[in-house]
Amino acid sequence: MRVLITLLRKEFLQIFRNRMMLPIIFVVPVIQMVVLVYAASLEMKNIEMVVVDDSHSDASWRLISHFEGSAYFQVKGSLLSFIKAEDMLLSDGADVILHFPADFEEQLINTGATDLQLAVNAINATEAGLINAYCNQVINDYNQQIRSEWFGMDATGRMAQMEISTAYWYNPLLDYKIYMLSGILVIVVTLIGMFLTALNLVREKELGTAEQMNVTPMKKFHFILAKLLPFLLIGLFELTLGLLIGRLLFDLPIRGSLFLLFGMATAFLVVALGIGLLLSTISNTQQQMMFVAFFFFITFILMSGVFTPAESMPEWARKINLVNPLAYFMKAIRMILLKGSSFHDVAREFYSLLVYGTLVLSLAIFNYRKTS
Amino acid sequence: MKIIEVDQLVKKFGSFVANDHLTFDVEEGEVFGFLGANGAGKTTAIRILCGLSYPTSGRISVAGFDVYREREKIKQNIGYMSQKFSLYEDLTVSENIRLYAGIYGLRKQEIRERETELLERLGMSDIRKRRIGEIPLGWKQKLAFSVAVFHKPRIVFLDEPTGGVDPITRRQFWELIYEATKEGITVFVTTHYMDEAEYCDRVSIMVQGRIEALDTPRNLRRDHQAGDMNEVFLQLAREGS
User: Fold this and answer.
1) d(CA B155, CA A203)
2) pLDDT tens figures, A227-243
3) What's the fold here for domain B2-240?
4) Structural domain of A230
5) Do B75 and A216 touch (CB under 8 A)?
6) How much is the pTM?
7) A-interface mutation test, from B88, B104, B106, B140, most A Cβ less than 10 A away
8) What's the mean per-residue pLDDT of chain B?
């Protein structure tokens, strides 16, 4: 125990003497939380629409003004030819073309049904899907409106219609930021913890001080534990800082117990830092370690469901996620923060992380070589 | 009493033989010089004796413990100072002393008393709060040596401890070594400065992985009809290549 305290003292002294450390600890999370949350939003605003109106009718004009009135659309004017509109789509000057055929109004009056063409730039499929959905919503509204005007009935009129009323639970305003925020929180905690720990140990190898340690009778688990604990605390501090920023800037809900959240974070950090330490026992230089760590980090993050729901991934991908610590933590942190889930709800995640952490850490200790 | 016993030590890296059947003993309390040119295999051998590296074959015991099975017991009984005099550059003089002393399990009170006494003896009391990175090389080396013997080991291994400093500083460094021997510490030192060989009780000279000679400096000079150790070394190196 005395040896562990001696080693811990050394690590803390070194960490806080490193000039880069304080900026990393404070600036990285602030920038990530503030910039990424705003930037990586899935909400569509300013969808650029170009209109090709071959009908020049009252009906088409009224639909266009509906789009103009919407906050999500920016109608960039009417063009006479579809070819020209296509050029705009090609040159990224527009996201969507709305095309009225020449007989748009006639058909609408005579048969009560008409055609409209939407051409969406679908390079980004998600974006295209959203644009399509937004357009449909505007067109539907318009549809309802003319029905009631022309046929003198209200929207629920002639035909029995099924009204769907949707309530969005846990995120009633569908605020995408809140979903992103919890994801970015996980990234911040992982990034700082995993990389700093791993770099620290490999640096000692590079400098040769690790050898000086290896020639002493210190126990391997003391050495590894002394590398783990300071960064575990820093990780938890990052989480606190992140939660504060989320609370103050984005009104992030904290519905579950903070105690549970930090317990979960501790279990997660043992895994993340354990992986970092394991990688640094394998690598001899900081470059090697960074390369491998980066590979794992990116894979873990993209698979974890930070941007896309992990549940809708294909079967094989969900199998991979069984070894992805971020997937467990990502799920748990969202459940605790947004849903107010209790320990019972996230017990599977917690125990999984606990077992995982014990395994990885034991492996890191086992794999650290005092003798080569 | 023999404190280090090495019998037929072989260390291979792939097909390269770094240590080729080394056999030698070190007596308790002596200053044993381990001489050789760069790349002769000195560091390889010293790392094996310290339990930092596995031998390929051979019987080796240090302080009565076997290097295959009892490395951690060996480590409790030795001190080691490498070519890189690996003190932590970002820690202060005092923090380094306390760190290493703490790892060997010394009590706080004892550490504090001996630290004060040591720094006074070295004339470094004023710089105890300075970081290692800021002090001159010669001071670092003296301090690294003092840290290596702070826990009073039975043997101290020094791997080219005096590289890169002037003759006066080297001389002062050797005075520290002699002080350590007075306390009964056995000194195992590698060097390629042949004048330092004269300070040793016995020296072995390694050429290309093999020990070509092992005796007191005086006997070696006599046997090779040489004026100094440098001549002895050059003769052996020429024969070996």
Assistant:
1) 29
2) 999 999 999 999 999 99
3) Rossmann fold (3.40.50)
4) 8-40+173-367
5) yes
6) 0.81
7) B88
8) 91
